[in-house]
Amino acid sequence: MLLYLDIDGVMVPANSWRRPEILDDGFPAFGQMATEALRKIISSTGAGIVLTTSHKSRYTPKEWRDIFKKRGIGVNSVKRLPENTLHLNRRDELVKWFNTNPVHDNFIIIDDDKSLNELPQFLKNRLLLTSGSVGLTEYQAEEALRLFERESHELA
Known about the structure:
Elements: E1 2-5, H1 32-45, E2 48-51, H2 61-70, E3 78-80, H3 90-100, E4 107-111, H4 121-124, E5 127-129, H5 138-155
Parallel strand pairs: 1-2, 1-4, 2-3, 4-5
Helix pairs in contact: 1-5
């Protein structure tokens, strides 16, 4: 199981009136609600993370695991989409990735980018869209678990 995960607007609420707290590793603190929600998803599914965030190339996968660990989230696997050298929007970046990489795992996409509403249906059915100013919520964690369960039954 894989989570294609954005950070800004998902783990770090994007509020223009408030600067996020920057921890000593140089990266913003995650919101408490988002942290608890992601912890719930990972502990229930064992899902690995594939980072889709624009920050994905700033750190190595090991550094990303340390970032998550420092924020109270244990992850077994952290991968990243390739660097977005073509400067594609998130929707096009994901479509390109899924068109060139066979899907072998059950997955969901967690992002706040509204352009993802235009994803092909196969991907949109696995999309959990957050509110950028709120981030990932407990309700959405439950929805993610339902999506994983539904996809597991369909793949069986």
